[in-house]
Specification:
The chain has 2 domains: about 1-105, no CATH class; about 155-245, no CATH class. About 45% of the residues lie in helices and about 15% in strands. It has 9 helices and 7 strands. The protein has a 5-stranded antiparallel β-sheet with strand order 2-3-1-4-5, covered by helices on one side. Helix 3 (about 125-140) crosses helix 4.
Length: about 240
């Protein structure tokens, strides 16, 4: 007997995840009813409720990663829970929650890239996510950053919280030294995020504590900066811990 958990989201993005998550600890697989998560994380659990709660922790981190790496507008959610018996029969537990599923056209989830020297490499867009999820299982800061990234749309306070998570782990000097962000861009971001004049009601402070920035950063620039910073941080941490699910 084993458990499978239905994964709800954009069909194209789910196909990418199925290409990327093919390891032993956590797989995303296609079934007749859609895509499911099959994981050793569920083996010791006795009830569908417990499986669902455990799956939600993983899927929240995965959803934030999908928003970050694939530009998802809808994220992911947990659907039904299936108990698969040894004879192939299954018990289905359906949890009634409102949900909206968006389907995006996708030509191919996997394609081959050929470099100038003639070397071909298979590219799967969701591969980085399969590297980040083990980190989220092991490190609370990574899980928190991806959980915060699952918010949509991201406002100034959301962005600053994500920045603070990364900053607490690496420090601003290290971010700059590694080339993840420039000092000028980081100062513009933090000054704008803290400024009521520049960021409005979404500013981190309720009143203007310093002079407003002369060259405030736009919200779209800030989202791009934080995503670049978060992606670089996750990539660096993955390179230090290359275990893949």
């Amino acid at each position: 007997m084993h458990w499978e958990v239905q994964l709800i989201g954009d069909s194209g993005e789910l196909a990418m995840l199925a290409d990327a998550f093919t390891g032993s600890e956590l797989n995303v697989e296609r079934r007749a009813q859609g895509y499911v998560i099959v994981s050793t994380l569920f083996e010791s659990l006795a009830s569908a409720d417990d499986v669902r709660e455990r799956a939600k922790e993983t899927v929240t981190a995965m959803s934030g990663a999908v928003r970050l790496e694939l530009g998802s507008q809808v994220g992911l959610a947990v659907g039904a829970v299936y108990r698969i018996h040894d004879d192939g029969k299954s018990d289905i537990t359906i949890f009634a929650e409102p949900m909206v599923v968006h389907v995006r056209a996708l030509l191919s989830a996997t394609f081959t890239v050929t470099t100038a020297d003639g070397v071909s490499k298979v590219h799967r867009p969701a591969d980085p996510i399969s590297m980040w999820l083990p980190l989220a299982q092991e490190e609370s800061l990574v899980a928190k950053a991806l959980r915060l990234r699952d918010h949509h749309p991201l406002n100034w306070s959301d962005l600053f919280r994500i920045y603070e998570v990364v900053q607490s782990d690496e420090g601003s000097d290290q971010m700059i030294a590694r080339g993840w962000v420039t000092k000028c861009a980081l100062n513009r971001f933090t000054h704008t995020a803290n400024s009521v004049t520049a960021a409005g009601d979404d500013a981190r402070h309720g009143f203007e504590r310093t002079e407003p920035p002369r060259n405030p950063m736009s919200l779209s620039e800030a989202r791009q900066l934080v995503d670049t910073l978060l992606r670089a941080w996750l990539g660096w941490k993955s390179s230090q811990n290359p275990r893949r699910m």
